[in-house]
Structure formats: structure tokens, C-alpha cells
């Protein structure tokens, strides 16, 4: 009977002192070979903004996500720690310490995350008013606690490499690997596998603000280029506050805010908002506007009992459409935009049809 062959004897370095482990001899670099240095980490990347669309796009080139209703932030992490930047580029690390701490704990020596800071309600929906309350209101100095969650939807820089020139689908692969098991302060904004029209219908049924559509093959391009689209269930935009109507029922309070939008001729009056205020907002708003009183602007309504102010405050307004004379229909106050968020005041074109949202320029946050 033949004997089974013995396995080859392994050679251990400790048992064989005569054998020396050596690496391959290094050869000089071919001068014709291009240098491949690390990409320097940018101090800031101007955000990619979503363009308003009347309906979701169709086709395999588009990916869909839920639209979050919060503050757009960029998270920078390097060897010095984390920085939290607003859409306008202001450093708000001190306002979001929990997000900064969670970013440092991620398994990455250097990165830039793009996403949205939100506060969720009991139904898991983002609540803009609750986020403002967590920060102490517009101009408040309150430090946000762990109730604020950062949903990351893009990865722009990672471990020495600038990813902004890569296609979205490739950036998403890296982002998903990084945040695969993240369930704490920083989470992944999930891509939803569904047709855009179906997802929009479900989002609206659940009381969400809308959805975002993104071109899978597009690089990350700053500004409003059309690579990202937003489709809303409820119209919500930013308008300039130009004054108020005093309340006849509550002393030292407002009854409504006067609103304006940009046009080709400058600011134009688009109506007022008298609902949606919470708590002492009606008194706080009066105090703020009284500190910036001005003469009646030429575009303002002619009613007598109105107080006018410089258009320095920007209000976030929900509305159901436009009237024939270009005034907001069923407007409701959501809150004041932060200066640091650099909200764009809604812009309207003279040639557009008021109820056709597909032709309106949108100045809302992303």
C-alpha cells in the first residue's frame, strides 16, 4: 500500500536562522510616471443645490431620497478635529458639538460630509420648528443637543482624495460603506428604490415635505445646475419680511407679517401671513421689526395700520399656490431663516404663470 505523501515542511524564521526575510529591492521611479500626490483638503466646498421641479424625473439615471427639512451643513474632519459649516460657510461647530463628536468617531482620518441637520418628530418626520427651538430660535445661542441628527447624503472628500469629480453612484458607494451601521447622531440618508412618482405620493401621504432626485452619473457641482431636483408636496419658500400689521387683540404683538419676493424690478409685495406662529413669536417678531422701522416702500400695500421695516429678516413660509394678482394663497409661518444659512429670498419672474411651479425660481434651502 502506497504511503500518503507528507506535506511540505513549513519554514519558520525562528527555526531557520540562516533564512533572512527581505523585501523586493526598490527601483528608482520612472520619471515618465506621473506623480500621484494626495489632494489637499479644501477649506470649504460651495454646496450643490437642488432645482425645483413640478414632477419627478423618469429613468434609470435618477436616484431618489426623502427631502429633509432642516439646516444644510458640511462636516469637515481632519487631524485637528471636526468643523461644522453652514450652507453660507459660517463655522457652527460650537452649536452642534454632538455632531462634531460623532464625526471624529467615524472610521476616517479625513473627510467632508454633505447633509442636513434635523430634529425628528414622533412619526420620524423632520420638524423645522423643533430644530429652531433646539437652537434657541433665530439668532439664539443655544447649543443643540443629541436630539439633532445629521443625515449625510454625500461624501466629497475621503482619506486624502477629492471625490467631487466622481459620479454620484461612486461617491454613494463609499458613503454607504462608511455609514453602513451608523444609527446615532450621524446617519445615512437612504436612497429609496422606487419610481419617483410612487415615492412622491407616499411621501405626501405621510406628511413629508417632498423628495430629492439626483443624477447618478453627475459629479458634485456647486450651485443650482439641475443635477439635483426637488419635488415638493407642499410649497415652502423663503420671503423677505417688510413689516407687519399690529394686533388689535393682543397688546404688543403682530397680527400678520408683510412679505416680499425678488423680481426683475426689485422686491415686490406678495401678501401677508397671519397663521403658524407659536408661543411668544408674535411679540418677539414685533420687537425685532420695531428695531428696524423704515418709511413705506413704494411696492408696499397702501393700508393705513401697517408698520414697515427694512427687509433684513427672511421668513420660511408654507403656501398652497398663487392668486391671480400674484399673492400667496393659504400662507403659514414656519420660522425665520438664520443669517448663517444664507437663504435665498424667493424670486419670481414677470412672465411666469403664478400656479406653474415648474417655471418658478426657488430660493428655498435645500
UniProtKB/TrEMBL annotation:
Superkingdom of the source species: Bacteria
Domain ATP-dependent DNA ligase family profile: 147-232
Region of interest: Disordered: 1-40
Alphabetic keyword roster: Ligase
InterPro entries xrefs: ATP-dep_DNA_ligase (IPR050191), DNA_ligase_ATP-dep_C (IPR012309), DNA_ligase_ATP-dep_cent (IPR012310), LigD_ligase_dom (IPR014146), NA-bd_OB-fold (IPR012340)
Reaction it catalyzes: ATP + (deoxyribonucleotide)n-3'-hydroxyl + 5'-phospho-(deoxyribonucleotide)m = (deoxyribonucleotide)n+m + AMP + diphosphate
Coiled coil: none
GO biological process: DNA recombination; DNA repair
Residues annotated as signal peptide: none
GO-annotated molecular function: ATP binding; DNA ligase (ATP) activity
Enzyme Commission code(s) on record: 6.5.1.1
Family, per entry: Belongs to the ATP-dependent DNA ligase family.
Name the UniProt record assigns to this protein: DNA ligase (ATP)
Species name: Aurantimonas endophytica
Amino acid at each position: 500500500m502506497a504511503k500518503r505523501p507528507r506535506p511540505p515542511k513549513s519554514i519558520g524564521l525562528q527555526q531557520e536562522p540562516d533564512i533572512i526575510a527581505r523585501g523586493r529591492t526598490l527601483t528608482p521611479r520612472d520619471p515618465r510616471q506621473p506623480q500621484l500626490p494626495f489632494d489637499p483638503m479644501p477649506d470649504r466646498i460651495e454646496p450643490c443645490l437642488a432645482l425645483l421641479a413640478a414632477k419627478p424625473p423618469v429613468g434609470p439615471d435618477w436616484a431618489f431620497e426623502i427631502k429633509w427639512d432642516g439646516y444644510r451643513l458640511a462636516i469637515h474632519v481632519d487631524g485637528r478635529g471636526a468643523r461644522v459649516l453652514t450652507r453660507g460657510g459660517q463655522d457652527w461647530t460650537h452649536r452642534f458639538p454632538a455632531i462634531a463628536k460623532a464625526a471624529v468617531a467615524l472610521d476616517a482620518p479625513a473627510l467632508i460630509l454633505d447633509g442636513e441637520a434635523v430634529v425628528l418628530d414622533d412619526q420620524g418626520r423632520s420638524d423645522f420648528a423643533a430644530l429652531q427651538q433646539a437652537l434657541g430660535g433665530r439668532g439664539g445661542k443655544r447649543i443643540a443637543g443629541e436630539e439633532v441628527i445629521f443625515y449625510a447624503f454625500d461624501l466629497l472628500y475621503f482619506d486624502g482624495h477629492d471625490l467631487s469629480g466622481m459620479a454620484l453612484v461612486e461617491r454613494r458607494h463609499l458613503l454607504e460603506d462608511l455609514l453602513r451601521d451608523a444609527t446615532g447622531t450621524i446617519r445615512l440618508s437612504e436612497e429609496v428604490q422606487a419610481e419617483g412618482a410612487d415615492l412622491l405620493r407616499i411621501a405626501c401621504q405621510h406628511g413629508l415635505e417632498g423628495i430629492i432626485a439626483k443624477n447618478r452619473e453627475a459629479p458634485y457641482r456647486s450651485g443650482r445646475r439641475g443635477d439635483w431636483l426637488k419635488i415638493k408636496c407642499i410649497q415652502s419658500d423663503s420671503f423677505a419680511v417688510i413689516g407687519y400689521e399690529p394686533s388689535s387683540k393682543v397688546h404688543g404683538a403682530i397680527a400678520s407679517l408683510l412679505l416680499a419676493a425678488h423680481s426683475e424690478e426689485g422686491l415686490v409685495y406678495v401678501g401677508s401671513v397671519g397663521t403658524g406662529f407659536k408661543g411668544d413669536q408674535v411679540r418677539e417678531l414685533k420687537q425685532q421689526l420695531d428695531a428696524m422701522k423704515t418709511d413705506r416702500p413704494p411696492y408696499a400695500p397702501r393700508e393705513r395700520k401697517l408698520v414697515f421695516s427694512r427687509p433684513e429678516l427672511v421668513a420660511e413660509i408654507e403656501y398652497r399656490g398663487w392668486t391671480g394678482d400674484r399673492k400667496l394663497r393659504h400662507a403659514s409661518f414656519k420660522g425665520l431663516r438664520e443669517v448663517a444659512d444664507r437663504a435665498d429670498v424667493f424670486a419670481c419672474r414677470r412672465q411666469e404663470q403664478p400656479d406653474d411651479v415648474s417655471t418658478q425660481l426657488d430660493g428655498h434651502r435645500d
